[in-house]
Amino acid sequence: MSVQVYAGYPGYDVSNSDRGPSLASRSADVDRMAQRDAGFRFVATQSDHPRYELRRWPHLMAAPFLGVLTVWTMMKKTVCRMLGIAAPRVNSLFFDGLGPGTKAVKECAGQWKALDIIYNHRFYKQKFAARGSVAGWIDGFWSGMLNCQAVRNRLRLAEMEIKHAILEMATDDVRVISLAAGSAQGVIEVAKELKQRGIRVSLLLIDIEPRALAYAQNLARTNGIGDQVEVLAGDVRKSIRVIHDRRPDIVEMIGLLDYLPDLMAIRLISAIRRGLPDEGLFLTANIYKNFERHFVKWVMNWDMIYRNATSLGNILASAGFQDFRLVAEPLGIHGIAIARKSPAEMGQVR
Ligand SMILES: C[S@@+](CC[C@H](N)C(=O)[O-])C[C@H]1O[C@@H](n2cnc3c(N)ncnc32)[C@H](O)[C@@H]1O
Question: How many A from CA of 182 to the centre of ligand 1?
Fold first, then answer.
């Protein structure tokens, strides 16, 4: 077992390479690691990603303002519920009332489109509001809130982990399956970059929402990798067979665990693990508890299941993974798990 500061990130990395016999002892190990991990969380090391975002102070100072907006929205919604009338169309004048971009995010909260807007800073473009206008300023402020910065950091961290993993493989023909793929921006950007280095990354994108897949296919075409992408519309829970059949090098599932209760998450990840070939990699992520979470739930209408490194680690361990790392993006709001199916796990049935 080892706990270390990940060389390249001002985040942290928990490695679990134990081969402990029981789930209970593995979970206890993860607990101990997460506790020790707390001491490493804010160790500053040099970021090796030039595009990480780390603008903490303006948004920490705005915390009381966020608190007021949250309580106000919570009260409005509670009164509406008690009166049996529809929830207010506008949660807050200072958020979705005057900010067209923030309103668009609120209206598709939890879906791939909201992430696509946040990833690409579309708030500033003419589609929403002009840069010099009040609406543009409001959108600009909220697009920089810590949770928006963090989710863009998650995208970059996931891309970097996937790219590094592929570069370590002794093949130039790699198969990746993206579950709950959404716009699949991360894997598409990685495939595009690696194509330029002579590595072909074949992508199978699975999502329950056909419009997300159509969007992803178009994104792949505009990135010059349209011929490397296949899509499958359906529920990931019913698509596990595909993992058995395709024998992918990497399965990525980012942005889904945040909505799955523990038991469902464990069952799904356990099935994914069984479908993975020996030495296959599984990447997933979860949002961690942070002070903006009540604002995100009440004002942005974006409800998620918040975990921490311990509970994310416990889910992976309970799903049967014995070899995994947890890495946080630099703001500590999103954790990514990188798990490898080791040969020792082959006999396990859960
Ligand atoms: C928050 S988005 C994440 C998209 C993308 N992975 C990303 O990180 O940008 C969640 C995605 O999961 C998809 N989804 C939700 N439940 C699903 C299910 N049961 N099976 C397949 N896809 C699902 C949604 O359609 C949506 O595209």
Answer: 5
- Containing structural domain, residue 139: 57-148
What is the CB < 6 Å shell around ligand 1?
110-112, 115, 180-183, 207-209, 212, 235-237, 254-256
- Identify which of 177, 170, 236, 226 has the alpha carbon closest to the alpha carbon of residue 199: 170
Confidence of residue 261 (pLDDT cuts 50, 70, 90): very high
Domain membership flag for residue 206: no
Closest CA to 116 of 182, 54, 161: 182
Query: Is the distance from CB of 287 to CB of 307 less than 8 angstroms?
Result: yes
Q: Is residue 278 domain-resident?
A: no
Torsion of CA 154, 258, 144, 156, to 10 degrees: 10
231 within 8 A of 217, measured Cβ to Cβ: yes
pLDDT for 48 equals 55
- pLDDT tens string 299-322: 999 999 999 999 999 999 999 999
- 94 alpha carbon to ligand 1 midpoint, in Å? 29
- The verdict on residue 300 lying in a domain is no
- Ligand 1 centroid to 83 CA: how many Å? 34
Number of domains the chain is built from: 1
Residue 176 dihedral angles phi and psi, to the nearest 5°: -125, 135
Query: What tokens does 105 get?
Result: 């995010």
- pTM for the full predicted model: 0.86
Residue owning the nearest CA to atom 25 of ligand 1:
209
Of all protein residues, whose CA lies closest to atom 11 belonging to ligand 1? Answer: 180
182 within some domain: no
For the chain, the average pLDDT equals 85
